[in-house]
Amino acid sequence: MRIERFRWWHIAEVLGIEEDLFGAEKWSPAMFWNELAQRERNFYIVALDEGLLGYAGLAVNDGEAWVQNIAVRRTAQRRGVGREMLETLLGEAERRAIKQTLLEVAVDNAPAQQLYAMYGFEPVGIRRGYYQPSNTDALVMMRDV
């Protein structure tokens, strides 16, 4: 497996993962184009082997970073892909001298919460009805360096 910068030509494959994992809450192509266009502020990556295994993103603003997405194709889950991408994002935050990294995760996504906790993220709040249209709450987690 290798980690590379997310480029525009990866969008088509990423959209398939988005549809499968997030359904009605998936990001649109325009949302990905917008994120990729902000190269100074955003850092997006893909995990590849024979094909695209997953993608992840980090947004940096005013001295803090937010993990935007970490999504792994179902057939590649439980193989360390998400962990490797998270480590890459945290390395980028460190390279940019970011002291605080935050993220939102669905309150019912225990495996992701456990992964984040392994890297020092702790719950700091709840965003009620954050994920739409399912109205699912998001747990806000934070990691200080």
TrEMBL record:
Acetylates the N-terminal alanine of ribosomal protein bS18. It is found in: Cytoplasm. It catalyses: N-terminal L-alanyl-[ribosomal protein bS18] + acetyl-CoA = N-terminal N(alpha)-acetyl-L-alanyl-[ribosomal protein bS18] + CoA + H(+). Belongs to the acetyltransferase family. RimI subfamily. One of its GO terms (cellular component) is cytoplasm. Its EC number is 2.3.1.266. It comes from the Bacteria. GO terms for molecular function: protein-N-terminal-alanine acetyltransferase activity. CDD domains: NAT_SF. Pfam families: Acetyltransf_1. InterPro entries: AcTrfase_RimI/Ard1, Acyl_CoA_acyltransferase, Bact_Acetyltransf, GNAT_dom. The keyword Acyltransferase applies. Keywords: Acyltransferase, Cytoplasm, Transferase. Residues 1-145 form the N-acetyltransferase domain. The lineage of its organism: Bacteria, Bacillati, Actinomycetota, Actinomycetes, Micromonosporales. It comes from Paractinoplanes tereljensis. This is [Ribosomal protein bS18]-alanine N-acetyltransferase.
